[in-house]
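EI: anyone free to look at a 604-residue chain?
SC: sure, send it
EI:
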Amino acid sequence: MPKTYTVKQVAVALGFSTNTVYKYLDEGKIKATRLGSEGRFRIPESEVTRLLGERQAVTPPSPSEALSGVERAKEGSTEDNTLSLLNRVANPDLFDWFLALTAVFVGLTEFLYPLSYQLLSVDPYRSLVLITKILLILAGPTLIAVDIFIPAKKTAHHLLSRLPLAAGFAVLAFINTITNQYLNVAPLSILAIFSLISILWHKHPIFRFLTFLYLVSLTSAFALVYQPQPILFADLRYFISSTPGLFIVLASAATTIAFVICFYASRVSRPIFTFCLWAISFFFLLVSLSKLTDQSWTKAIVYLCIAAFCFLQPISEHIESLSHFTRRQVLIAFIWMLCIVALGVLAVYTIQSSYRRSILSTVNQNSLAAARLIDNFITDSVRTIGSLSQSPQVAPSNLTDFLKESYLANSTLRRLLIVSSATGEIIASYPPYPADLLPNLAGSPLADQPPTTLLSYLSPPPTQDSSPAIYISSSINADKLTGVLVGIIDTVKLEDQLDDLLSSSSSTYTLIDSRNRSLLPPDSSAPPSIPGQSYPRVGYSSAGVLSFLSSSPIKPYQLTILVDQPYAQSFRTASIVSFSVFLVTLLSGIGGLLGAVYFSSRKP
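SC: here you go
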């Protein structure tokens, strides 16, 4: 049989006078059962729990309202129950659980995939974002602690417990606004607003939660107009961009109809209401999973929490009340859950740090291997050019045949040229190339090699007309021919070898000369400056993409190979794994706590 309390017990527990309790009973604000037409009221424990959570002010009972001796005699046997009630705790509102857990999970995203890593524009606010998310991780448990351990709360208690949540969500919404991340702004701003509204709005929890869902869905639809993205498995970006007005009308109508149906079902049919909320829960779960694929952790976390509490809302009445336990029991359970959350955060941080070090090590090894490959490739070409320039077969009468045989005998050169030292003109080349399309090397260092210099290395371009390439030159030591043998390294083959070397990873590379010019790939955009940087490290590539960076010098030729691996692509698996570990840790802690409660409640 459900446990009940008398008017006096409830008055003492709430700090009301008995007259006030009777007044609320007459007005229907307190639900109770009356024993006979003139019998005493019996107030169920579920109603007392609700009142303890909603009490805003406490007024001590006046002496004139004390029980008479007869009443004390009749109710003396229930004094222990009254003391037991006062020693117990309040059951937090389900929406407070939602706000608290969402705050913890949103704060956790700083360890999964920091916002400053996703957007270069957030980098100036990195410290503020970190402080705000740590605040959210601490504010979530604080809200639950106040709800549980201060049953009769004043407005100041609600204000102090919810203000940090509202401030944290508002700051994140502001930062996302100035960085044009409107799809993050939509749920964060509504969370901030409802954190403040919850200071005074405690009644009608179902209507409050449905209103929250409605506003989140509506503002997200408006955000899609400014920042179109695919919705689940449908790519509606063209439709949204071309007809934003029609999209807003359709989205507003759909969300409004869903809100009205859910609210009406909550009043007339519990099964239909449950079905509607579970359908909404499934929808938000799919949206959350879709956001995980592109590492949009803030949206994914918020939508996942919404999905979870949409599922719990219809069955919340069947969840066992905390008021069945003493303060000591709940305090132990609360400390246990704090330790579990801390352990989960530590596990996420450890996994992320370990994986980050592993990727940096891999990228560094890739850069070293790429540097060795380029060094060997260029060294082979240098040796080939040096040997050919000293060949006795070099003669003015057979230059083309000599270049053809030399070209076919090696695999590292794309073209061979012989340049006259006197005029700077190209007097022979292989493979054949129209003379008017060959670069004019007059006055360039290639055409002015002193006879005593066997080998020299020049990085491109030697003239403004020549395409980016790696040139190797050596003075020709032959009778009746004063010139320079020039070889152009086959960068296509070099790129193929580098691609094969890095095929097992998502790394890309940039070969830079001593003047910070990109040789591979030949790109007009300026590569990042290498001097003074510490490698390997996490930084932004020349394209402005956050990456794992590592560089290795090729000292004999004054070159540097820079290898970068995009952070988001590299860390997708690590982020999902670490978040899964956090969820498993949290669920294991909850499961252990429920198991302890179950076995401790069993009678021997």
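EI: The CA atoms of residues 497 and 539 lie 26 Å apart.
SC: 👍
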